[in-house]
Specification:
It is built from eleven helices and seven strands. It is α/β, with parallel strands linked by helices. Strands 5-4-6-7 form a four-stranded parallel sheet, sandwiched between helices. Keywords: Isomerase.
Length: about 230
């Protein structure tokens, strides 16, 4: 029997749409009834996660996220996913309010790295300032014996510009900027793998793909996990 699961999205909306599309594409179907059973809360008005991580006087996303978790539990979902890496800053608090398990996208992506890499391999992290500052991916990778690598301040600014200025604000993927960043991680930082640790970067890889099997798209890994466990 299929699992009925919940998706907390809207962080951002284009990335959520990309996740749902990926889940549907990965599901083997021959008729309507073959698709997975899920409900999407596209809660676009949830405050910016990175802004709050750096300044707790900013609007706090946690109460709205907790409300969504409670509603999904009332509906009776088997598990919950959040289509935002930075929102995992709040995951431990959210899990306290949820009977249904909340899947960890960073853990799933880091596990994919562990499977794909050798011990002490260097894995670059492309993510928001909030995700980097909270060490969401660094902790997961270190726990799995993999060496996390983060960009210098200049290149981190470029990552944020790609995420916020281009994709979130304009629904546009700057191919040159994205590919230059990937090249920087591989060539300058000598990374063996790169984790795309922001769902907007998953959009970038879909729309302007960088041809490499050594890019681990966290949202895509989550989608594969969901399809495997929900069917």
């Amino acid at each position: 029997m299929k699992e009925f699961f919940g998706i907390i999205g809207g962080m951002g909306t284009v990335a959520t749409e990309n996740f749902v599309h990926t889940v549907n594409q990965l599901t083997e179907t021959h008729k309507d009834q073959d698709y997975l059973d899920y409900i999407v809360f596209n809660h676009a008005s949830i405050p910016d996660r990175t802004a709050y991580i750096f300044d707790h006087t900013k609007p706090n996303p946690l109460p709205l996220l907790q409300s969504d978790v409670e509603k999904l539990n009332d509906i009776g979902v088997s598990f919950i996913v959040m289509t935002c890496n930075t929102a995992h800053y709040f995951r431990s608090e959210l899990q306290k309010a949820s009977k249904a398990p909340i899947l960890s996208m960073p853990n799933i992506a880091a596990s994919a790295c562990q499977t794909s890499t050798n011990k002490d391999s260097k894995v670059g992290i492309m993510a928001t300032d909030g995700t980097i500052s909270a060490e969401i991916y660094q902790k997961e990778l270190i726990d799995k014996g993999v060496q996390p690598v983060i960009p210098d301040a200049h290149h981190q600014q470029l990552v944020m510009s790609l995420i916020y200025d281009d994709i979130k604000n304009k629904d546009f993927v700057n191919r040159e900027k994205y590919h230059q960043l990937i090249t920087y991680f591989f060539q300058t930082l000598d990374c063996e793998y790169i984790i795309l640790g922001c769902t907007e970067l998953s959009v970038a890889q879909e729309k302007e793909p960088y041809p490499s099997e050594y890019i681990i798209d966290a949202q895509n890994e989550l989608a594969k996990y969901v399809v495997k466990h929900a069917e």
